[in-house]
Structures are given as C-alpha cells and as structure tokens.
Amino acid sequence: MIRVSLKTKMTVATSALVAFFMTASAFSALYFFESGIKQSIFETQSIFAGRLADELDEKIVLLQNELQAIAVTLPHEILNSPEKAQRYLDSKIDATFMFDDAVALFSPSGKLIAEHPFVPGRQGMDFSSHDFFRTTVAYLSPQVSLPYSSAGNEGGPVIMFTMPVFDRHGRLEGVVGGSVKLLKNSYFTKLRHIKVGGDGYIYIYATDRTMVFHPVVSRIGKKDVPPGADRLFDAAIEGFEGTGETTTSLGVSVLASFKRLKNANWIIASNYPVQHAYRPLHEARTLFLLILIIAVALTWIAAWVAMARLTKPLLALKEHVEHISEKKESDKIVHLRTGDEIETLAETFNAMVTEMTRKTESLQSSEARYAKAQEMAHVGHWDLDVGASTMSASDEICRILGYTPETFGGTLEKFLLVVHPDDREKVGSALSEAIRQKSGNALEYRICAGSDVVRFVRQEVEVVADEQGLVAHVIGTLRDITSRKNAEISLRKSRDFYLTIFEEFPSLIWQAGSNELFNFFNKTWLDFTGGTFDKMAGFGWTDAVHPEDREALLRTYHDAFQGRLSFESEFRLRRHDGEYRWIMCYGRPFRDVENVFAGYIGSCYDVSERITLEEHLRVEKRELEKAYSELAAMQGQMLQQEKMSSIGQL
User: Fold this and answer.
1) Which of 474, 479, 476 has its CA nearest to residue 384?
2) CA atoms within 13 A of residue 101's CA, in its CB half-sphere
3) Res 89: pLDDT
4) Which helix (H) or strand (E) covers residue 204, if one does?
5) Residue 356 CA: distances (Å) to CA of 319, 329, 346, 352, 451
C-alpha cells in the first residue's frame, strides 16, 4: 500500500479546498460584476436618452415660444392685407432663421395669407385639410405635426409647428406656422450622425407608431413597425421609459432606451447593438478565466511550500507569536520540546507573556474605569496625528459616531464620513484653522450615526506642537448634546405653535427678531394688506404705510428697539382695496427661556372709525363755536340799537 505523507495529504486537501472556494467566489464575483456593468450600461443609456429628450423638449419650447411671440405681437390689421402680412413675416429675421423651411400665416378658414420665403402663386391656397391646421383649430393650442413632404424646391420631410392667434375677445383670428426641415436642420442633422457605441443610432417616433425621425430617410413618416415586432417599442407607447434588451422589427438584438417627450406625443429612442454593448464584458470574462487558472496553479505551489514549513518547530513558534493577540490568556503559552535553543527561546517568550498579561490586566482595569466615566458623561476623546494622518479614538467616541472600535478605521476621512453633509465643510475648516492658527477652538455640529440617527455634538480641540514648533497632534473631545438640542428644538416648535394660534386673531399680529427685522405676520395682517409674507418680511411692510407717516413710525420703532422699551404708535396703513386706514400699533420686547432679548412682538388695530368720529366732533365743535360768536355779535348789535333808541326818546 502506497504511504502518503501528512504534508502531501494536507497540501492536497488544503489546495483543493482553497481552489474550490476561490473558484466559487470568483464566479460569484464575475456574476455580480457583469450584473453591475450591465446595470451601469442601462443607466448610462437611459441618462443619454433622457438628456436627448430634454434637449429636444427645449428645442420644441424654443420654437413654440418664437411662434407665440409672433402671435402675441402680430398687428391684427395685417390679417386682411396679404401685402402687409408678407412684409411683416419678411421682417421676422429670428423666426426665419429658426424655421429653416418656412414661416406662414393662415386665416381661420385655412387659407394661406403670407409665407416666408415668398413663393409666387401660393397665397390663398387652402391648407384646411392638413392635420397640423385641423388639430390647431380643434384644440386652439400649439401643435407639432407629424412629418410630411415639403412643397419647396428642395423637397424632403418637414415638421410644422403651429400657434393660434386670438383677437382681444379670445376668438380665433388666424394661425401662425413654422416648418423645419428634418434633413437640413442642424439639430436633427446632429441626431442623424450620432452613433451609439459605433453602430447604434437615434430615432424618434410618435405614439401612433409614425416614424418622426430616423437615420434611414425612407422610413420617416411611415408606420413600418407593426405591433408585436419590437417588444419595448410597443411598451414605450404604453408608457414605458427606460432601457432594456429587445429585438428590432428587422431582427437585430439591441440594447434599447426610450424616453417620452413632454411637449409632443413623441418618443425618442436609441438602439445599441447587443454584440457591441457587451463586447467588453465578453473580453473581461475570458481574461478573468485565464487569471483564475493561473491563480489556482499558484495556490497549489504556495500550499506545498507552506505545508513544508509548517512541519518545522521554528515556524510553529512564529505562527504562535503572530496570532497571540487572537488567543485566550491560557493559550498564549507555547509548548515546545526540541531540546535546543528554540526551546530556550520558547521558555523566555512564555515568561515575557506572563509579565505582559499581568500589566495588560492592570491597564485594562484602568481603561475600563476611564471608559465608564466617559460613557456616563457622554464625552469621548480623540487624537489626530497630523504627520501620519491617523486618528485614535476612545470607545465613547466610537459609540457617539455609530462605529465599533473595530470598524472605526483610525482615519480622519472615516471620522468626517459620519459628519452631516451640511456641516462637513465647517468641521474640516475648523480643524484646518486650529492647525493653521496653532490654537484650539470649539464647534457644535451634527453627525449621522446610522441610516436614520442624527446626533448633535460639541467638539473642543487643542493642538500639540513638536520641538520645532510645528503642530504634531490635534487632540479633542466630543460631547453628545443631542438631548439639549432636542429640548431647544421642542422649545422652538412650541413657540411656533403659539405663533400659529395668532394666525386667526382678529387683530394684526407681527413679530421682529433681535436683528430688528420683521419675521412674522399673522393671516389677519396679510389678508388686511393683501400682501404676501415674502413682500412683507424685513421692512417690506413699510411700503404699505402712508408716506407721511412712515418716517415717524420707523423712528419710534427704532428708538424703542434700541432701549428695549414698549411703544405705541398711530399711523395710516394701506388696505388691500387701496384705502388707507388708521392703525393703532402696540409693541413690546420679549425674551427667550434663557432671559436673552429675542425681539419684539406687537398687535395693531383698525381705529379709522374712531379717528373719523373724533374729526367729526371737532368739526361740529368749531361750527358751534362759530355760531355762538355770531349770536353774541348779534346780541351786541341789538343791545346797541336799544340804547340808541332810548337816547332818541329822551
């Protein structure tokens, strides 16, 4: 019986096992790699089709806006004068540049009034039977036609854009149209020459299956893709948008992308032949298999050499030392009986392990107490080695950041990774500033400790310089202040709640911040003035104050604000109907929970009726005083006459 050595058995068994798992892992990785690449290609093609669709939508909107500009500014009298209409169209240089086939003006009945460029004998032609005219008149909205053959000298397919023209009463007065040559227009020419992956192409079709644009000119305007001939072609008509594998009506397997336009019932599509799209994957698979074969062969050789070395005592001691950190305390002692220097080395090593175990236990006990203190205070510490760009952190730091000591990584990048994206820049700037200024600082910010856990922390840092005065370390503490911040947020929400109560108060309620700017108006105020909050915010509300009262009101408010005093003022405020109403305003300062000045809050009341009554009373008083004076004068005259009469009788 053939005897096989243990080394050979272990080499064969280990190599076979490693080769099996390596092969399984390699093919799994290859599968996920190919799936990822295919998904990436799908996404890239979808993005490409989406961008082309957005670009074409913008082109359509641009052309429709140009026609709308003509329709809005069109002098109505020229609709009855072909000569004036012709001169008007000839003057529209921008439109004739954008619509490279023709710009035309039609009557409500479909008769051609004028067109540019002018073609003799065409004025008065009837276009009422054309689809683009019938749909425009039927829907009274801008339309984009399907391709049709141009009647011009050059011929070829064109697309007509139309815009209805209305009179001042909203009645249809005419139709403005502009046509674009599919084979001459710069944008469609660009689409025609786009090659997707070398042999692929772009085409456009309508939801009724009419081919709007295709590199093969003979297919334009035709419905040559019957239902069922192309699976994704049909799905896109039903609403599908995206990328997938399909077979065209000509039997070619392609990677097809579809995107529906927003401004026309068109679908833009790209066809990328599968054999070209997946060629890099096929090449990578061949290379991958070759590398796998070489790797398995090298594994067999490496396993043979490793097993040979494992039979030697010195290698056993080396392996023991390399993995000692993974062993339990009782397993850290090595047992070698070789009777030579290796055994002596093993005994010395065992004595060193025993001493280190004692010191480690003492250190671990001290660190445990320190870690417990940090945990109770929710404070951790970290140390950044500026030169090496490495960072050490306490267990409490890892807990606050959402890491474990094993997953932290010990790098500044790993630390900054959990900082809230909106705060990451200022945290990095604070560290850079501390290093540059060689001084500490403090900062509060947010961290994302998990997929849905946001914490607030306070960081304080100090720098440590080396003998040359250069910053060698930045040390810092991190305190979890989430509870305090949540309390502050709850307080703000409570304040906002009371502000919402003010919304329906019958009086006009306002609030200003500590910067003197107004930051709240209740619904009653906004309804009274007819303005929006954006227009009223800051000092925008003063635009509604009567010009004669504005300066005095602002001076009263500013003086009270500087002295933190309550105030009242009477002024005229423009109501939503344009009438100025007399307003009595009361304002007083308020403070936050920490007794810090937070701004002003006030209320206003419409006192116009009182002012009107007071003015009426003042007028009546003046009239009574005038009547009394006239009565007194008459009495004086009568008395004088009586005296003169008495003297005459004597």
Assistant:
1) 474
2) 26
3) 87
4) strand 201-206
5) 19, 11, 15, 6, 41
Stretches in the chain below the pLDDT threshold 70: 1-7, 9-10, 30, 34, 151-155, 186, 307-318, 320-326, 329-330, 332, 340, 342, 358-359, 361-378, 450-451, 487-488, 490-501, 593, 627-628, 631, 636, 643, 645-650
> Which strand (E) or helix (H) includes residue 260?
strand 253-260
Amino acid found at 419:
V
R_g (Cα) of the chain, nearest Å? 44
Q: What is the DSSP letter of 101?
A: S
* C-alpha to C-alpha distance for 128 and 554, rounded to whole angstroms: 66
What is Dmax (Cα atoms) for the chain? Answer: 184
> Distance between CA atoms of 321 and 333, rounded to whole angstroms?
10
- Separation of alpha carbons 443 and 426, rounded Å: 9
Confidence at residue 397, expressed as pLDDT on a 0 to 100 scale: 80
Element (H, E) at 341: helix 341-377
In percent, the amount of the chain with pLDDT more than 90 equals 25
Asked if residue 227 has a cis previous peptide bond (ω within 30° of 0), the answer is: no
C-alpha span between 579 and 573 (Å, rounded)? 8
In this prediction, residue 568 carries a pLDDT of 93
C-alpha–C-alpha distance, residues 205 and 214, integer Å = 8
Q: What pLDDT does residue 6 have?
A: 52
CB 92 within 8 A of CB 98: no
What pTM, to 2 d.p., does this model score?
A: 0.43
Both structure tokens of 205: 């079709």
CA distance 383 to 445: 19
Instruction: Please choose, from the candidates 141, 156, 158, the residue with its C-alpha nearest in 3D space to the C-alpha of residue 102.
Output: 158
The answer to whether 134 touches 128, Cβ cutoff 8 Å, is: yes
Distance between CA atoms of residues 636 and 643, nearest Å: 11
Residues 6+ apart with CB under 8 A from 102: 115, 116, 117, 152, 177, 178, 179
The rounded distance, in Å, linking the Cα atoms of 179 and 191 is 18
Mind listing the pLDDT tens digit for each residue in 490-506? 666 666 655 666 777 78
Give me the pLDDT at residue 406, please. Answer: 78
Burial class (CB in 10 A: 0-12, 13-18, 19+), 252: middle
- How many whole angstroms from its chain centre is CA 430? 26
DSSP class per residue in 398-422: HHHHT--TTTS-SBHHHHHHTB-TT
Task: Give the pLDDT of residue 373.
Answer: 46
